[in-house]
Amino acid sequence: MNWSFLDFLNLCGGLGLFLFGMTMMSESLQKVAGEKMRSILANMTKNRVMGVLTGVIITSIIQSSSATTVMVVSFVNAGLLSLAEAISVIMGANIGTTVTAWLVSLVGFKFSIVDIAIPIIGLSIPLLFSKYDRRKSIGELMVGFALLFIGLEFLKNSVPDINTNPEVLAFLQKYVDLGYGSILLFVFIGTILTLIMQSSSATMAITLVMLNQGWIGFEIAAAMVLGENIGTTITANLAAIPANTNAKRAALSHTLFNVFGVIWGLILFYPFTRFVLWAVTWGEPSANTPLYALSLFHTMFNTINVCVMIWFVKLYEKIVTTLIKEKKTDSEFGLQFISGGLLSTGELSLIEAEKEIEYFAQRTLLMFKETRQYAVQKHNDKSNQEYAERIEQFENASDKTDLAIADYLHEIAESPISLELKRNIRNYIYVTSEIETIADCCYNISRTATRKNKLKFNFTAEQLTDLNKMFDMVEEQLNIFYKSVLKSKIAKECREEILRIENDIDSLRYTLKIKSIDQVNNGTLTYASSTHFMDMIEECERLADAITKVAMEKRM
Question: DSSP letters of 310-370?
């Protein structure tokens, strides 16, 4: 056989270029349209038909069903999509991914696109060095498109031709003439190839090249396509491993949907493939007829599968809910949305961090309310120990959450993202650290209350009135903070209200300090009582400072 080791390396290099180009296209498109895709997913999935349409649109845009399904798994994990909505979007993604096959069939084999690929890269250079993120991403999109077809050209040229290397056909003949056994064998081969490469688009390109070069016939290529539909589900399942139960269910539903589709595809394999060939050769047959037939088979199979399975979304939901049981975890103190592992771009990964920060702020508000309750209780109250232990749990969870969010945000920042997103990440890290400061203040108030209880004294009625007045102000400020914690610009009225309350808190702290000193001097208050009282007041003032810093940092 006239095929050298260098030809093999060229084949591997061509495949690598194709994969890199596909990845670069997908990532740059997600950078350009990341926010819009998030909005589409949030607003267009309210019924199963719109969910399917959403999956088709997004996957057609980003050219990767794996990226779409991983995105959907992450959105389910973040609570933005229900399980039923996620299943319908995943169904649509299966149709959207067929665009790649048509792109390769219609363009990649008709002429040498390398002739225009290099000029495309040349045109992209000014965009790549632009200071504007959107233009830079468009430049990366153009380079990715060019590299994809350069890789395809290397693939075509590196695969040995049957006419000059008949040994290849003789070798394959052992496996393609086994009747239905050959179909099942190549379904398995298609599955394994896609599992290895983590890209059904790359496996589809290889299948099209093999078909174009005469290595395999149309029916064997169609069998590989069925296998690729199973293999492509591995990406979402890997992404769901560290995620919550609903995310795991969404990933499993993708696998079940594709496997059930392949089952009916195998049952009706021969009549279906004959119909596709008839449809393609209805006009004038050409050299590219097998390529068009395979692309049509891919599209028709996925479209029919969706049209049939869309009526069974609720059934899929019941099946995966039965197979994957809800785990009993410490849901109140554990991480809710960050599950580890980024999406294909930081633009989309950030949503999990945002939801986790919102939950962190909500939990800290609850911590403050319980701290307040503990601080004003009598020293011999039976629930004191329970409050102290629970607030310590809040504090430990806050430390872990702060670190987990910061690590995740740093991981996003290290991925290829826009400068605007980097600024957002800096702001989120700052907000998270201030939320942790709020939790520290609550814990310090709790410790002061514990020390007071050990000394077995209670605050006076006047002290409790003043303390509750301070707590009322801080809680009001915390409520405003929670509602606007992740808005890019805190509303002017909210910021002004936070600043007004901060001034009132500073004034009250000063007044209470003078008052407490006077009461100690005239003997109406013990020094120990004054010290513990003012420690709580000072922590409240420090807590309010943390909220105000965030309000001032997030400028309008």
Answer: GGGHHHHHHHHHHHSPPP---TTTS-SS--SS--SSHHHHHHHHHHHHHHHHHHHHHHHHH
- Over residues 77-133, the pLDDT tens digits come to 766 677 888 888 888 888 888 887 787 777 655 556 667 788 888 888 888 888 777
Of 174, 276, 150, nearest in space to 218 by CA: 276
**CB distance 480 to 497 below 8 Å:** yes
* CA distances in angstroms from 93 to 14, 226, 254, 398, listed in the order given: 26, 15, 10, 38
The DSSP letter of residue 493 is H
Burial class (CB in 10 A: 0-12, 13-18, 19+), 279: middle
Instruction: Give residue-wise pLDDT tens across range 286-334.
Output: 556 788 889 899 999 999 999 988 888 888 889 998 998 876 554 556 7
Residue type, 93: A
As a whole number of angstroms, the longest Cα–Cα distance in the chain is 109
Domains and CATH numbers, the chain: 5-323 (no CATH), 346-553 (1.20.58.220)
Instruction: Compute CA 313 distance to the chain's CA centroid, rounded to the nearest angstrom.
Output: 22
Contact 289, 283 (CB under 8 A): no
Tokens of 336: 């809710």
Q: C-alpha distances in angstroms, 484 versus 26, 349, 394?
A: 33, 21, 22
Is the whole-model pTM more than 0.85? no
| In contact, 364 and 438? CB cutoff 8 Å | yes
Cα separation, 127 vs 142, whole angstroms: 10
Task: Kindly indicate the confidence band of residue 486, based on its pLDDT and cuts at 50, 70 and 90.
Answer: low
pLDDT at 185 over 70: yes
Residues in CB range of 418: below 8 A, 6 or more apart? 31, 133, 134, 137, 347
Q: Is 420 helix (H, G, I), strand (E, B) or coil?
A: helix
